[in-house]
Design brief:
By secondary structure, the chain is mainly α. It has one domain. The strands form three sheets. A two-stranded antiparallel sheet has the order 1-4. Strands 2-3 form a two-stranded antiparallel ribbon. Strands 5-6 form a two-stranded parallel ribbon. Helix 1 runs antiparallel to helix 3 and helix 8 runs antiparallel to helix 9. It is globular. The termini are far apart. The relative contact order is 0.13.
């Protein structure tokens, strides 16, 4: 049933947002006369690689920097890119990934191989389901760029501050997912664009309904600043990463 919902809603989304994708693609092309789409490799279900479709929000060749975590003041983001990222317009082409079966509407966000290579045995369970356009962490860490804005090394800061809880939220989804939960997450993703605090409150209700740990609920509530934490399945905080 989940796959049927994915196919139906992806067709609807591509029909509705198709004109938006075309208009924005033209605007992206006009700003620098380069191909407006970006299709990096990502790791999907069962570790299989696929091309992720996005509208390009950065300068051409931005990925050559090997900086995989984007912060708010990232110099690689174009002026137009800031606008389309604000409302997640750059993500709209991923409905084609859903239609083709590489992704689902809801599921753990797909990662690059350099990050997946760091996964603990526990984190590898996230690859047991199709990756999604949105998930609980997309709502909780919708301000990711702000969280990492002052970091000296955004990649390391991501692995120390965000990955531990992003992975725990993804594993929570793997263990408790349902069609009803998917619908709630899709709704809260829309709410997050308008009011991130309200959306996080919705995530808290989902977590508490299914008995999530107090530590995870506390992080979602933002009771205190994020501190370096070991990812699930590991005993130590990440201090280095393949570049």
């Amino acid at each position: 049933m989940k796959r049927c919902l994915d196919v139906i809603l992806s067709i609807v989304a591509l029909t509705v947002f198709g004109p938006v994708i075309i208009v924005v693609a033209i605007l992206v092309w006009r700003q620098d006369s380069h191909w407006p789409f970006y299709s990096p490799w990502r790791v999907g279900r069962d570790g299989k690689a696929f091309r992720l479709f996005k509208l390009r929000s950065m300068i051409v060749g931005a990925d050559k920097s090997r900086v995989d975590t984007t912060i708010d003041n990232d110099s690689r983001i174009t002026p137009l890119g800031h606008r389309i990222r604000r409302f997640k317009i750059d993500e709209l082409p991923q409905f084609a990934n859903v239609f083709l079966g590489y992704m689902s509407l809801v599921g753990p966000r797909p990662n690059i191989d350099r990050e997946v290579n760091l996964y603990s045995v526990e984190e590898q369970r996230m690859l047991s389901v199709r990756p999604g356009i949105t998930d609980l962490s997309s709502i909780v860490f919708s301000d990711l760029g702000t969280i990492l804005a002052e970091a000296e090394d955004a990649n390391i800061a991501y692995n120390q501050l965000v990955r531990p809880w992003k992975s725990r939220l993804a594993l929570f989804y793997v263990d408790h997912n349902s069609i009803w939960m998917d619908i709630r997450i899709l709704w809260l993703t829309f709410v997050a664009v308008l009011n991130s605090d309200c959306a996080r409150d919705g995530v808290i209700r989902i977590l508490m309904t299914h008995g999530a740990s107090a530590a995870l609920v506390s992080v979602v509530r933002r009771d205190q600043e994020l501190t370096p934490t070991a990812p699930p399945g590991l005993n130590n905080v990440v201090t280095e990463r393949e570049v």
